[in-house]
Amino acid sequence: MHIIICDGSRREQEDCRAIVEQFAKEHKLRLRLEIFSSGEELLFKVEDNYTEVDVIIMDTELPDLRGIEVAARLRKMGYIGDLVIYASTLEYALEGYDVNALSYILKDKSARERIIRAMERAAEKKSERDQDTMIFSCGGDTRCILVEDIRYFEIQKRVVTVHYGDRDEFSFYSSMKQLEEDLDGKGFLRTHKSYLVKQSMISRMTARQIILSNGEALQAGQSYTAAIRKAGKFREQSM
């Protein structure tokens, strides 16, 4: 579990570190922990690997930026992990909703217990994200895509294009074999040597094509038609 603590106070950094390390030890979690003292330093260091960060514990009063501002920039960057706002006052509590904070924790006597509860929730959410989200990277660009949003994968040589959302797409390097292994048990069906399709998207098939529920038509490989019919109980329709 990759956790970042961003706090301008050395003492509070160490207090928070001790809580997180004890939590990881008790729950037998493999922990990668980083500590930053300023918002700009954090933003610079995580710009290229924010998809690997699971939790950021953020002080609201940093030496250079407001913690809420840093949190907003992280969300705009594409960070989908959990944010825990760690504050001395309730001044920014409402803004915590704007950045979809997992928890807003006051630095008081109950902080330790509340941080532990937040870590428990974050660990559960990480497990869910690991199951439901796929991360693709190519040429310095990274996309985090929910499996439920993916329509199909298309491969040309070693370049794979994932088609997701309404009409979004992203290309990266992989193989169909690797994708099939990664998506095993998640409802995807090989329909052609070049296509791996979400089974629930297939509405019907013809002798040479499958028709998706949004009207898209994809070529169906002859050697795959029997498996398609068996998986979806589709009857072939003439064009």
Q: Could you explain the architecture of this structure?
A:
This protein is α/β, with parallel strands linked by helices. It is 33% helix and 33% strand. It has seven helices and 16 strands. The strands form four sheets. The chain has a five-stranded parallel β-sheet, with helices on both faces. Strand 3 (55-59), helix 3 and strand 4 (82-87) form a beta-alpha-beta unit. Helix 1 (10-26) packs across helix 5.
Summarize the structure.
The protein has seven helices and 16 strands.
What labels would you give this structure?
5-stranded antiparallel β-sheet, single chain, elongated, 7 helices, alpha/beta, 239 residues
Topology pattern, helix = H, strand = E? EHEHEHEHEHEEEEEHEEEEEHE
Distance between the termini: 52 Å
What is the radius of gyration computed over CA atoms, rounded to a whole number of angstroms? 23 Å
Report the β-strand fraction as a percent range.
25-35%
Principal-axes shape call: elongated
Q: How confident is the prediction overall: mean pLDDT? A: 89
Largest sheet: 5 strands, parallel
Spans of at least 5 consecutive residues whose pLDDT stays below 50 are none
The computed structural class is alpha/beta
Helix share, percent: 25-40%
Strand order in the sheet with the most strands: 2-1-3-4-5
Number of helices: 7
Number of strands: 16
